[in-house]
Write a structure and sequence with these properties.
It is built from 20 helices and 3 strands. With 453 residues, it is mostly helical. The protein has 3 domains: 1-118, no CATH class; 120-221, Orthogonal Bundle (DNA polymerase, domain 1); 229-452, Orthogonal Bundle (hpI Integrase, Chain A). It starts with 8 loop residues before the first helix and ends with a helix. Residues 35-116 have low confidence and may be disordered.
């Protein structure tokens, strides 16, 4: 029996995903080790092992300890199966349980992919080596693994050594046929290219066959742009703000607060979704000889399950007076009183563990279908672009702009910014942040009353 080490439902979900991936990798390794004796195990088996973990999460109800127990029972069965494979004899001529099982599958017409791994490197193994050497955030590892598996499926290969430029081109074509945007295709390519670069570094392959490949946006299509006043009015006069709607896909109250927080902090979506109640705090500061204090949001990776894009992303952002007026401090205090692990506890993480994954999909639909913002260059990240632009228009120095947004410019001074940056200039900058012509919604409490009635 493996303990997940937590009684928190959300953390159990995250850990179960990670453990499920680990068991998939272990099964792949064992399958490869026994390939000479068994002609390989079918590709479908690892995902069949991981499926019960997801089912345990969705079927265990709302009680965290019951959920953990349910997940642990499934993991225990998986580990028992894995241990059974480890005990299969490997002497010459012996097939053992795994060999007999594989032989039956072969008779049933199942594929024999594992034989292709003999003497070569699977993408899972390469990713493990890359993750150990580079030590990126867990979300980055999960996303890279997902992109690599999609490449294997679409290109029809199983090992790093097999990759040719034609495989990479086929991957692009398959993604295009699946309706992926140029931006998403390039994200997939970036994952593939960095893995193959690492394979070259390890001398597993001689050249990176995907190097230099990218998809250009169609003529006339431009990069993301900031929300204009019309789009902002459409968002903040929508049913979430005027009729008290709290869509399940938007994580309940998260659908109200997260766009407002993005508007007034410029924070990235994942940074907002992963906030803990204790990340909102009052800090003292001196202003012209007098003692003052300010409410700030701490963007950090110190908490359980939190991550950052880079070290420069760690920072403190003062709360805008409008966020205080709307009741955000009161909302956070309620979250603390309820003992929530996260401020937005109703958000459901995506399959790769990202707190923002499902919210991002919901917001994209809500923006187009409900708010009627048709410009596809306007997305959630447009809040961040807008925040930077408004600060520039207010003639806020670049150094302070970067400190508020967690942007590393490469200057030596950046090393002394982040969460150690003085609060007073940040507070003064936030006070100067305003968007003329934008009428903000009713307070959170008023919206709560609309929901109640």
């Amino acid at each position: 029996m493996r303990s997940l080490g937590t009684s928190d439902r959300r953390e159990a979900e995250r850990l179960a995903r990670i453990v499920g991936v680990e068991l998939d990798r272990e099964f792949e390794r064992l399958r490869a080790n026994h390939a000479p004796k068994s002609d390989g195990l079918p590709d479908a088996q690892p995902s069949a092992l991981a499926t019960p973990v997801v089912n345990a999460i969705s079927d265990s109800g709302s009680e965290p300890r019951l959920l953990c127990s349910g997940v642990q029972r499934h993991l225990s069965r998986q580990e028992g199966f894995r241990n059974g494979l480890q005990e299969v004899p490997t002497t010459e001529g012996s097939t053992g349980t795994a060999g007999a099982w594989a032989a039956r599958q072969a008779q049933n017409g199942q594929p024999k992919a594992a034989g292709a791994l003999k003497g070569k490197t699977s993408f899972d193994v390469l990713i493990d080596k890359w993750a150990l050497g580079v030590q990126p955030e867990q979300n980055t590892i999960s996303r890279t693994r997902m992109h690599a598996r999609r490449f294997e499926e679409m290109a029809g290969i199983h090992t790093v050594e097999e990759v040719t430029r034609q495989h990479a081109i086929r991957f692009i074509e398959q993604l295009q046929q699946a309706g992926q945007t140029p931006q998403n295709i390039n994200m997939h390519l970036a994952s593939l290219i960095k893995l193959l670069n690492y394979a070259v570094r390890l001398d597993l392959i001689k050249t990176n066959e995907a190097s230099g490949l990218a998809v250009k946006a169609p003529s006339g299509e431009k990069a993301r742009r900031s929300f204009d006043l019309l789009a902002l009015k459409s968002i903040f006069s929508s049913p979430v703000y005027t009729a008290g709607h709290r869509p399940k896909g938007g994580g309940g109250d998260a659908s109200y607060w997260i766009p407002l927080l993005a508007l007034f902090t410029g924070a990235r979506l994942e940074e907002l979704c992963q906030l803990h109640p204790h990340d909102v705090m009052q800090v003292p500061y001196h202003d012209e000889g007098s003692e003052n204090s300010a409410w700030v949001i701490r963007i950090t990776d110190d908490g359980e399950g939190q991550g950052l894009k880079n070290a420069g992303s760690r920072r403190r952002v003062p709360l805008h007076p409008e966020l205080e007026r709307l009741g955000f401090v009161e909302y956070v205090q309620q979250a603390k009183a309820e003992g929530r692990k996260r401020i937005f506890h109703k958000l459901v993480p995506s399959i790769d563990g990202k707190e923002s994954g499902n919210f991002s999909k919901w917001f994209g639909r809500y923006l187009r279908d409900v708010c009627k913002v048709a410009d596809k260059r306007m997305v959630f990240h447009s809040f961040r672009h807008l925040f930077k632009e408004v600060l520039r228009e207010a003639e806020i120095p670049k150094e302070i702009n970067d400190a508020l947004t967690g942007h590393e410019s490469g200057d030596v001074g950046d090393k002394y910014g982040g969460d150690a940056y003085p609060i007073r200039p940040l507070v003064n900058a936030i006070k100067r942040y305003r968007i003329p012509g934008l009428i903000l919604p009713a307070s959170w409490r008023f919206s709560e009353e609309l929901v109640a009635h």
